[in-house]
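Typical record is below.
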Amino acid sequence: MFDYLLSGNHSEIAKFEERNRKLIRVLPDLQNAVERAYRDLPSGENPSDLVIFALGRRCAIDFDDILLLCTAGRRFNARGVIRGMFERIVTAWHLHLHPEQTMDFVDYDFIQRRKVARKIEDVWGVKAENEKAYGALLQSAAEVESRFRKTKCKKCETTELNHSWSKMDMVSMAASVGERLEQLTIMAYYETLGHSHATFRSMSEQYHEVDGAIHPAPVDYGAVDKIMELAHLMLLESLLLQHEHFENEELLHLWRGCMADFREIWQASREVRPCDI
């Protein structure tokens, strides 16, 4: 179970490298594009610049985590990271197209933190040294809350707090951004849902039946590599956004080379469609 930590799981690493020699070969170029995209922190004068930059940088970290999990054959856990990566890319593209909504995304953090803080108060109480900060958080959340309320009943004119910063759900948001991300919704959002939460699927896919007996399922290397392909494409999608938002022509040149590599590596795939520019 803990062989990757205890022994390095060299067998799985070797199998991954054998199957994905082309990917391993182009990783330095991909790393170069990532470093160029996130080399210069935006000035901070425009809130959307910082948010889109930071969401994109987190996507690069997600890719790194997925790469590590896939080298260990851990496709179930990699799928969970895919889901978060997809949501961050969709959100970043949406804010690029609708920068006026950036502060809604930012300020909803007060609502989320208040929810956690109230639970902490219920379970452990608030220490004296934290009372001032707790009060400030409650005040900040109260000041922005009206922007995140939605109608619960038109007849009785009651409202309730929305579950997210946007009244648009993630699937609709992906579709509004464009066809490329909409096409990834099934693989990156719906299919990963069962591995992001406590579901029957999240435990049942670990096993299979042989002669009437249940055994741990062997690693599905085809599924592992499909996740790696999807993560590769989504990283390129996030880098393309960095070019478009910041008009980084040097990054565009690097991106085009990385996209050509992607097409060569995964050319046999029929499920993942690469983005174009």
